[in-house]
Design brief:
Elements (H helix, E strand, L loop, with lengths): L1 H16 L3 H9 L5 H17 L3 H18 L7 H11 L3 H14 L4 H13 L4 H14 L3 H14 L2 H18 L1
Amino acid sequence: QRQMCIRDRVLGRVALARGDLATAERHLLQVTGDSVAETNAFLLRAEIDIRRERPALALEKLAAAERLIAERGMSRPRDLSFLQGDALARLGRHAEAEKAFEREIADHPRNRQAYARLAIVYGLLHRTYGDVDRLLARMFEVDRSAASAEIAAQTMENLGDKATARRWRERARKLARTAG
């Protein structure tokens, strides 16, 4: 049964990556009996709901995942707080989204996408470019890579700060040259 559970979880993730939400959902409904797999299935089902523009339903699944984690004494998996932040932001609950992304960063400091999404929430909360740049510098301190610098550049560019984006992009180029 454990092998079937793992198989369905993997097939669900593959279908989700391909954008086949219905197939992903079918596989994830088969996942039972293993705490980690069940938790991951809740997270994947929440991601499906977010992609289907149903953030309130996603939050329900994430709350169920939190209950399962608490009941079984498990640690918080990567992306639990990230998905909560994403769903909350889509509902316009930006202050709560900020807290969720900060929790994801505290629990999983190498999750670059949590920093990038938090930067967007900062923009929605009318935080300054300086606040966003300091947030991205925190990300870079944890992961001093060309990929992190490029994410910072893209984020600053998307928020409209072209000068800071150029500075981050130059840092990314320098790191890529030294790594290659």
